[in-house]
Amino acid sequence: MPHPSRRHVLAAASAVLMVPLAPLAVQAQTFPDKPLRLSVGFPPGTGPDVVARLLAQKLGELLKQQVVVDNKAGAGGQIAAQAVAKSAPDGYNLLLGEVGSIAIAPPAFSKLPYDPARELVGLSEVVRADFLLVVPATSPHKTVADLVKASKARSDRTNIATFGAGTPGHFGAELFADAAGFKIEPIHYRATGDAVTAIVAGDVVGAFVSTALGAAQVKGGKMRALATTAAQRSALLPDVPTFAEAGMPSIDFSAWFAVFAPAGTPAAVLDQLNRQIVAAVQAPETRAKLQEAGFSVLGTSRADTERMLKAEATRWAAAVKATGFKGD
Predict the structure, then answer these.
(1) Which residues contact 318 (CB under 8 A, 6 or more apart)?
(2) How do residues 27-43 score in pLDDT, each as one tens digit?
(3) Tens of pLDDT along 199-251?
(4) Regarding beta strands 36-40 and 93-98, do their DSSP bridges make them parallel or antiparallel, or are they unpaired?
(5) Which residue of 8, 155, 204, 298 has the smallest Cβ count within 10 Å?
(6) How far lies 277's CA from each of 62, 124, 214, in Å?
(7) What is the pLDDT of residue 16?
């Protein structure tokens, strides 16, 4: 029997290698041919939900397919993150993930049912939300220095409200107290409304709330903002100084929101989604609405998104370790 030629061997090998790739190539060429689902881990009406709906509306127009927002609220965004991490890697199941469920949860929860670094791929960081240090409108504290001085003089810990254990506001408060040299007692509220009610009623000394949420409360006379974690003063609250202006430049954290797909999604589909997501958030009408809601609009490349995610994972792992917090 004659031996097969080198040309025949290479041709056969190439044919074998190409078989599993063919369906992916076809999928990438026809994507999307049905509606997409964008999961968000918070209830309707919240800041993340606002971002998801504005993004979904414009992204659907660009992709010429409906993008359905699915509110999988609970566990600080972890339920939604788990659902997408375990879904089919075909580009039709996306996640609007945020710093809490993606960067803070892994070092804070020893039994997290998903692994963001292994099971999710970042497509684009779409927006960021800076934070305000707020106190009740009836509080005697008019500045950050006032609050720090009073907290240091207390014989007990300073009560700070949070929107859940392991959230950016929780760890932001811990970082602030550590930098200022006093101790806090975080009071974790499960519902956003309950935390807001506690702050307004004066049941707590203060809290870190997103600018998107806090601006309306401050303008309405329900809360007083002492400082913002942003690099510059917010256009929504131009009279509120930055932490750098208050003498604490290290307090510069923010909540970021990025779109994710399950790991294993074809690269061509990921690239197409990135292009359209960036175009969606940078569209003038979408950008204006997001900014009006208190968000800084980005729309980053896949490479820049991955770099950000790695840096944030390192940063928040150190913060979790410093506080000794364990969520389970």
Answers:
(1) none
(2) 567 899 999 999 999 88
(3) 999 999 999 999 888 999 999 999 999 999 999 999 889 999 999 999 999 99
(4) parallel
(5) 155
(6) 9, 7, 27
(7) 43
Q: What angle do CA 291, 296, 301 make, to 5 degrees?
A: 125
Mean pLDDT of 114-129: 97
Q: E-assigned strands of 241-311?
A: 254-262, 296-297
Domains and CATH numbers, the chain: 9-128+255-323 (3.40.190.150), 130-228 (3.40.190.10)
Which residue carries 């207390």 as its tokens?
154
Helices and strands (H, E) in the chain, number of each type: 14, 10
CA 106 distance to own-chain centroid: 14
0.85 surpassed by pTM: no
Q: Which residues contact 186 (CB under 8 A, 6 or more apart)?
A: 160, 161, 162, 165, 170, 173, 174
3-state secondary structure of 118: helix
Asked whether 87 and 93 are in contact (CB, 8 A), the reply is: yes
Fill in the amino acid letter for 107.
P
Residue 64: HSE in the Cβ half-sphere, 13 Å Cα cutoff: 5
Cα separation of 71 and 45, whole Å? 10
Question: What is the number of alpha carbons within 13 Å of residue 272 lying toward its C-beta?
Answer: 17
Q: Which of 309, 326, 324, 301 is nearest to 99 (CA)?
A: 309
